[in-house]
Write a structure and sequence with these properties.
about 220 residues; alpha+beta; 5-stranded antiparallel β-sheet; 2 helices; rod-shaped
Length: about 220
């Protein structure tokens, strides 16, 4: 009777262990019916409807993160050495004219993009009021350390053809076409890194009709210089 009772108890115990294992599987199956995103965000697109049959790997929704936002920017090659993580960035978008959004450089790529000869950097924008939306195009101003004064010309004085930029330097009553290397363009001025010296006068109007050696009329303001 003792051995029979012990065998019966062992069988009951094994049945209990099997029930516990089935319970774990059932709880996992129940948990798999709830889809959770790995981060807090908003649903941008729903790809299934109520009643649809889905399997492992089926895309259910597209979720976007709105705070903070990751901003991808490109920096010209000549300014790449000045950018470091932690630099302050000001952002502007067409949706909010005159408003600036603060961000901070988090990552600087170790290599240049061959198709643009530019450096990719990544900034983080807090976006506390959700004004910025994922997918927006932004204009960015990165605060750089102070450097030597640069030569700048009106942006309208620079012509670019086939990737080569040039200006027309005024020599007396004529102009000389000069190839230049440009830097940053901020507002209405463009930085000239190479090819132009400070104090030289450049043509600023009717650029499209000028040619090397063309005769021009020098305005009173330029003549005083």
């Amino acid at each position: 009777q003792y051995r029979a009772a012990r065998n019966a108890a062992q069988q009951q115990f094994r049945m209990l262990e099997g029930a516990k294992a089935r319970l774990v599987l059932a709880r996992k199956a129940l948990g798999d019916t709830v889809v959770r995103a790995p981060f807090a965000g908003l649903v941008m697109e729903r790809k299934v409807s109520v009643g649809d049959f889905v399997t492992r790997g089926t895309k259910v929704v597209t979720v976007v993160k709105v705070a903070p936002l990751r901003v991808e920017l490109t920096v010209p090659e000549q300014s790449a050495g000045l950018i470091t993580p932690g630099d302050a960035v000001r952002l502007q978008v067409d949706a909010y004219p005159g408003r600036y959004f603060e961000a901070e450089v988090r990552f600087v790529s170790p290599a240049f993009r061959a198709d643009q000869r530019a450096l990719t950097i990544e900034a983080i924008a807090p976006n506390p009021d959700d004004a910025l939306k994922p997918g927006m195009f932004v204009s960015a101003e990165v605060t750089l350390p102070a450097t030597e004064p640069s030569v700048v010309v009106p942006a309208g004085a620079v012509s670019t053809v086939a990737g080569m930029s040039h200006v027309f330097v005024v020599r007396g009553t004529g102009v000389e076409q000069r190839m230049i290397t440009t830097g940053l363009t901020l507002g209405t001025v463009t930085e000239v890194v190479q090819g132009l010296a400070a104090g030289e006068v450049v043509a600023t109007s009717r650029i499209e009709s000028l040619t090397d050696g063309a005769q021009v009329h020098v305005g009173a303001a330029a003549a005083k210089k």
